[in-house]
Amino acid sequence: MDNDVWFQREDPIELIHATYVMQAPEGGTAAAAAKKLAVGQTTGTWVDVPGVTERMRREHEGRVIRVVEIPAVDVAQPDGTRPDYALMTIGVPAANVGGDIPTLLTTVLGNDASTSVLAKLVELQLPTSFHETAGGPKFGLSGMREMTGVAERPLLLSMIKPCIGMTIEASAEVFRETALGGADIIKDDEVLTHTTNSTPVERVRAFRVEADRVFEETGRRVPYAVNITGRPDRMLADATACVEEGATALMINYAATGYGAVQMIRDAVDVPILGHFAGSGPFIESPASGMVGAIATGQLPRVAGADMAMILTPWGGYPLSEHTYRQTVSALRAPVPGLRQTLPLIGGGVHPGMVERYVGDLGFDIALSPGGGVHGHPDGSRAGAVAMRQAIDAVVAGRPVADAAAEHEELRRALEAFGTGE
């Protein structure tokens, strides 16, 4: 590999471009650190070993695509001041990873201290061939609109609350009340999978009865995303059993199971998958390592096959930056060759008073996902769902939610209980 690090270089090999921010190294150059990462994560190690051929280097060795020092000062400073950071892009031959996300992450996030550098992955450009092999969503945003029959407004998704400990009968009643109030999709909470009170299959059986009753009364089919998160063998068994019992969607916490588990389940069954981010904080919180939230909770769940994906927001109690919030939604919805769009699910502290903010930020192609903002309504879960729909309908019509509250008791009571979000 030569020392050319100008980003417009041509290459006959199809590459994945991984871009990092790193602190400028002491006693070395950013270009040398980039080369160490590029070679060490592909064909090399900390010492030369026999057997590496020119063909292997040409077809499988990582390339340094560019290195940009920050601040970009071209003239050496008299006082010896050096750049603080560097932006570096390495090219990984796509043939090294196929469409396998675990292999991709092993490659671009580093393996051990001898061959990696302390850097944070900030951008991942994947070729169309990777998207096509990895698969992406089967149904995606448009599929969820078709399944729910909701074409031109934000969807309303709610989860069963209390999170855990209820009997199946009590949970089924909450499902029924929430569905009758106007929820378009209902899911399990992320901490609920197998408990002494219920299993995923048992919940599917019980909730399917209520979903059928709601359909008979309203003509609306309300999908239920049952949480099957767990060890791989049990997840696969649960996925198959739940679909056989009539499950309409599955939920997986990809941060705990791995993105590859989402790919596995997507290929095994033919229902939509809801991806949850719980536990992804360690992936994104360090400024010096890991990856940005738009990759961890946006791009990768989409590539793995999540048709819907819960995301973090700056207003749900977690100190997420507004830039990451907007960038993550873009990673889920932006047009990408070979991938369907994923429906962003906006959760964490959502209630009717927040509808104007989120729709103003992100438009209609989202699902607002309140838990406590529905079930904590003073008049119960049905009234809470009704209030959310009233707020959504007001915003879609271009009316202030506060004005609509003067006409709707459920919405007025919700705003009194939860506030206006200002």
From TrEMBL:
What PANTHER family would the database entry show?
A: RIBULOSE BISPHOSPHATE CARBOXYLASE, RIBULOSE BISPHOSPHATE CARBOXYLASE LARGE CHAIN
Its Gene Ontology biological processes? carbon fixation
Q: What is this protein called?
A: Transcriptional regulator
* Superkingdom, natural source: Bacteria
Q: Which residues cross the membrane?
A: none
Q: What InterPro entries does this protein's entry cite?
A: RuBisCO, RuBisCO_lsu_C, RuBisCO_lsu_C_sf, RuBisCO_lsu_N_sf
Which Pfam families would you find in this protein's record?
RuBisCO_large
Domain Ribulose bisphosphate carboxylase large subunit C-terminal as annotated: residue spans:
142-418
From the UniProt record, which GO molecular function terms apply?
magnesium ion binding; ribulose-bisphosphate carboxylase activity
